Amino acid sequence: MDRLSIMLTPVTGAVITGFIVIVLFSLGFYSWTAVGIGAGIGCVLAWPAAFVVSRRIKENDPFWQGDARMGVLPGRNAPEV
């Protein structure tokens, strides 16, 4: 588990939940069950989606290297949490 994915987990959970609830509402399912299903799927898929996004950011961003001298970001090869 890395620190960036921890920060992205609530955001991805909200996006996934919102997407699923909107799809279910557009299909005509107007009930608390539809909202519950969307929230459940959003909770289950939040961390895996955040992990994938975090890996893609770290692989594709040339400036994501961190510097131990800065004290804010760990180095690229530093151990994760």
Written description of the protein model:
- This protein has 81 residues and is mainly α.
- It has a domain at 3-56.
- It contains 2 helices and no strands.
- The chain has helices spanning 3-26, 32-60.
- Helix 1 crosses helix 2.
In summary, what is this structure?
With 81 residues, the protein is mainly α. It has helices spanning 3-26, 32-60.
Indicate the percent of residues in helices: 55-70%
Low-confidence residue ranges: none
Q: How would you spell out the order of helices and strands? A: HH
The biggest beta sheet is recorded as:
none
Defining traits:
81 residues; mainly alpha; transmembrane; membrane; transmembrane helix
Strand and helix map with partners:
Layout: H1 3-26, H2 32-60
Helix pairs in contact: 1-2
